[in-house]
Amino acid sequence: MFKIGDNIFYPLHGAGTIESIEEQKILGEKRKYYVIKMPVGDVKVMVPTENAEHVGVRNLVSNNIVSKVFKTFDTYIEDAGINWSKRYRDNMDKMKTGDILEISDVVRSLTFKQKEKGLSTGEKKMLTNAKQILVSELVLTNHMDKESIEVMIDEKMQKAYDKKMEELL
User: Fold this and answer.
1) Is the dihedral of CA 37, 109, 120, 153 positive or negative?
2) What is the pLDDT averaged over residues 3-29?
3) N or C end: fewer C-beta atoms under 10 angstroms in the chain?
4) Is this model's pTM higher than 0.85 or not?
């Protein structure tokens, strides 16, 4: 069980801090909820304490994993040539895992796809959401602000993209 002040990760919403644990009556049923304040997007999420583990709430990743995340962005990947609907489903499955490495892969692949050919409206929304989820965890694990994390990610990917373009010349 988590406690007030714990930084946790909630899949499809990102990382946040447990602000309180409240008992609420919703749909006629009284339950305890974690009230989680997200650092990115200024959102509060309520998760039933009894379902937290089942829905994938977890502790934040270690610094070792964070370094692997940043290494993900050092490498350019080419579009596999699959159609957008299959790519969308595959990326959504990765997002649902709550695995930060899978989410960073979604951010990387969609960012490079956007640079090459552009994205559908749904994929643009997914990229925005994936980046927000990723950044929220990196903000709390690195004790940095959102803008600094985003700049680090963007710079790493731009460098990888530029390197690949130079190799093609």
Assistant:
1) positive
2) 93
3) C
4) yes
DSSP secondary structure letters along the chain: ---TT-EEEETTTEEEEEEEEEEEEETTEEEEEEEEE-SSS--EEEEEGGGTTTTT-EEPPPHHHHHHHHHHTTS--------HHHHHHHHHHHHHH--HHHHHHHHHHHHHHHHHT---HHHHHHHHHHHHHHHHHHHHHHT--HHHHHHHHHHHHHHHHHHHHHHH-
Q: For position 109, what pLDDT does the model report?
A: 93
Q: What is the pLDDT of residue 41?
A: 73
Fill in the amino acid letter for 144.
Answer: M
Rounded CA-CA distance 66/68 in Å is 5
CA angle 108, 153, 90 (to 5 degrees): 20
Cβ-based burial of 29 (10 A; exposed 0-12, middle 13-18, buried ≥19): exposed
Instruction: Give the pLDDT band of residue 106 (cuts 50, 70, 90).
Output: very high
> Which of 39, 22, 127 is closest to 10 using CA atoms?
39
Q: Which of 59, 70, 52 is nearest to 153 (CA)?
A: 70
Q: Are 38 and 136 in contact (CB under 8 A)?
A: yes
